[in-house]
Amino acid sequence: MGKxxxxxxxxxxAQKALTPSIDDLSIFDGLPSWGTVYRRDNGKDExxxxxxxxxxxxxxxxxxxxxxxxTGRVIHNGNLGE
Length: 82
Description:
13% of the residues lie in helices and 29% in strands. It is an alpha+beta fold. It has one domain (7-80). Strands 1-2-3-4 form a 4-stranded antiparallel β-sheet, covered by helices on one side. A hairpin with an 8-residue loop joins strand 2 and strand 3. The longest helix has 11 residues, at 7-17.
């Protein structure tokens, strides 16, 4: 088994996925509870990092980036929720 992606590396991956880069990101261990992320692997909840992108004044869906802890691959980058 290879290196597991830690919290700091997941934040760096999320920063790369954003244009322009945003510094005030929130990161959570596991899959998001506010929506369904469709994925091809059989990973468990604890195999992912969920990063939330702030969007002041927005009501509804949250811009969410989900990153595999095993590969560092971004498996979701977009709105999730309502």
